[in-house]
Structures are given as C-alpha cells and as structure tokens.
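Record type: monomer structure entry
Structure origin: computed from sequence
Chain ID: A
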Amino acid sequence: MLERASYYGFRALVVLYMVGETLKMERAEALTIYGWLIGSLVFSQIIGGLFGDLLIGNKKSIIIGGIMQAIGAFSLCIPSTTGLYLGLFLVVLGSGFFTPNIISNFGKSYLNKTKLLDSGFTLFYLAINLGSFLGILLIGYIGETYGYNIGFVLSGILMLISIIPIFLSKEKSLDEIEKNEFPLSKRILNILIAFTVVGLFWGFYEISSIRTFDLQLQLSEISTLDIPSHLWQSINSIFILPISMIAIILWTYFYSSQFFKLMLGFIFGVISFGILFLIPEVPAEQHTITFLISLLFLAISEIHIAPIIHSILTKYLAILISLAFLPTRLISLIFGLFNDKLYENSMLGLKIGIIGMTIIGICLIRYIVWNKNNLNTNYN
C-alpha cells in the first residue's frame, strides 16, 4: 500500500513538474516522456523478475527496488533535466524490481493453502487501490500546495518505509512449498488462457473507458448528487474498496475455481457495459444513478479478474508475473490504433466491449465444463 501510494503520488506530480516553472517543458514533450515512463515499466519488470527468480531472490530484489525508487524520487528535487531523467530512470528500474517480486513473495505465503490464494490476492489488490487513491490524494495535494519537491521527498520517504516490513520478514523457501500436482501441459494451458483472457479484459476495458470518461465529464456538470468534481475520476476505486472486502471474506470461506471467477468477471463486465449502453449519447441528470450502477458492476467485474491472474501465476515464478503485463500492453496497443474512430463514436467501443466480453465469457464456460468432464472421466 505504501509503495503504491509513493508511486502514484509521484506520477500525479511528475507531468505538472515538467511543465512547471522549473523545467518549463512543452505539454506535448512532457506527455511523451510520461508515455515512455509508463511503457518502460513492462520491460523493467521482466528484468526485475529475472533477477528475483534466478540471481538474488525475491526479497533482495524488493529491497533493492524500493531503495532505487526512493533515490529516484529524491533525484527529482534536482532542478534540471539531468535530475529529471536520473529520477525517472531509477523509478522505472526500481519499480521493475519491486512489483513482480512483491507479488511472487506474497503469493508464496499461500502456496500451502491454495484455496486462500484468491482472497489473499484480493486483499493485496485492495491494498494497491487504497495506496494509489491515498497517494494521489495526499502527495498530489501536498505537491501542488507546498511545492513539488516536498511531494517528491514525501514519495521517497513512503517508499523507504514500505520496505521495512519486507526487510524484517523471512523469505519463504521453495522447498517449504507443496509441489503442484497438475501435469506440465495443463499448467502451460492455464497460463496461456490466463494471459489471453486478462489481456483482452483490459483491452476491452480501455476502449470502453472512452465512453465512460465522456459520461463522467457530462454527468459531473449536470448531476445534483453533490459529488465533488475531482471524485468523479475516482468513483470506480471507491466502489472497489468495499467490494474487495466482501470478496475477501466470501472467498476465505466459500471456494470456487479461479476460472469460474474469471467467467463471472466477464459476465459482470457485460452487464456493466449493457447498462452503460442504455444511457443516451447526451445523458440527462436522471441517468446519473444508472451510470453509478454500471460502475458498481464494472468494479465487481474487475475484482473477479485483476487479482485472479496473480493468483494463477504465483504458483510459478516472478518472471511469469512480470510477463503477465505484456499481453495487456500488446492488446491495448493494437486497440489503440483505432482510438481516433473510437473518440469519434464512443458507443462503438462499448459495442465491441459487450460483444468481446460475451464471447470470452462463453468460451470460459465451455472450458470449465470441459475441465469438469475430464475430471469426471479420469475419476471414473
């Protein structure tokens, strides 16, 4: 939670800092650099996963990554482009070491009680969302009110505090973990399906978000619900927090398979987009509640998908966890080629999302039934 607060708080300030009085960059240049920052994370996470799994271990990688991120945040206090590029480089590299290894390290705690993996990673996802929400709120506010340097220093301090419990904890040895009983071919199939399904989910989520953001802007101007304008951008995160808590409790006591949860995630996604589709292109004030119900179902959908990919992959390696980001980026890149058409007709993205999620939901149902039939055949 603290690491995500540090990272997202830093992200909330960095573009404002680049276009501000110190560096005086053009907006287009600052956004280009920001785009490179986000894109580079995919490759740094692969490097971090390799180091964590094959060279120095997950725990050391987390600590090194945290220290690099903190130094990167402090480096941004140097009022020059040298300080900027050094800081961004260290934050990207540090996050690459930290992120896949913290996920892998966390997952090891559950590998002798795998039925708790889903609720464990939902708790983890809750911490991520809470951290990012608080980081943007706290560091963003302090940076804009008291100066960007204060915000960057606070980001670095939170980062250093975040590695203290990791430093004090004992890393679990792979020898202590139960071996996976599934055959290699089945594990590879599960990984490929998980990669593809989650990548497509975030792709459909992204192209449909054009319509969501459009409605947010329109409804924030006409709604009488007295929701502050800055909170309209965070409504989805606000829904995720209580839904995560409910899921953590339910999944601790009532287990269902991970692919069944993925299937439910796509069903809830279709319901969310379907409700959104009922809102006319130019909404009226009474459509605010309909929009919020749609976001509620979208948050339920996200909770059934985002933590589950880590739950599936944590049985393997941090390297695989780092690679999980690749299909998402690749599919988002492919869908991004059509952004111009989607901005012209935001309902088109919604239609593609509904059709795509429906097809994947049906395919997941077929896969679950096929798995169940195979299991019954083998048992008999």
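Annotation 1: The chain has a mean pLDDT of 81.
Annotation 2: DSSP finds 16 helices and no strands in the chain.
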